[in-house]
Amino acid sequence: MGYSELQLILAEAVIRGWIIGNANTYYLNGIQAALQFSDYNSTYSAADIQDYLGQASIALAPGTEIRQIITQKYISMFMNVGWEPFYEYLRTGFPTFEVTGSGIVNQVNGVNAVPKRWMYPLDEYTNNATNVQNAVSRQYPAGDNINGTMWLLQQ
Question: What is the distance of C-alpha 75 from the center of its chain?
């Protein structure tokens, strides 16, 4: 876990009331650290980072803090930490992905949608069929479908 991710986690924790602290400070520290980390070729200066942080659209706004924090966390982790940003999306619903284009092949009740989970791999069915079928039937009555809500997110 990098420093930027830690700072954004702390910002979310403050907003959710899990810890006491200054969410804005953690949030801005997280964004700044992410920008500094991703600046491999010294493409932007410290002034560029401050200009970005100073934008009105970046400032935490009441009622949208979690969306803003998770969106910045997604940006900071993009192409950097594997599938974690997708799991954050599943956990929070942020960032909001555009799914209205014609290239979207996944649908739920005829409406384009972001998948909610991976299906079990085919080799699992080949090598462990009985246990996989039992697990699927317990968790997903409609079958092993990418739109089923994984147990961790079920209420």
Answer: 9
Closest by alpha carbon to 140, among 107, 109, 110, 118?
Answer: 118
Give the integer Cα–Cα distance in Å for 21 and 16: 11
**Element (DSSP H or E) covering residue 111:** strand 111-112
Mean pLDDT of 65-70: 96
Pick the CATH number of 3-92 from 1.10.10.10, 2.40.30.170, 1.20.120.840, 3.40.50.720: 1.20.120.840
The CA distance from 65 to 139, in Å, is 33
> Per-domain residue ranges for the chain?
3-92, 107-153
Rounded Cα gap, residues 135 and 128, in angstroms? 11
Candidates 53, 83, 67; CA nearest to 12 is: 67
Helix (H, G, I), strand (E, B) or coil at 107: strand
Q: What is the pLDDT of residues 81-108, one digit of tens each?
A: 788 888 888 889 899 888 887 777 888 8
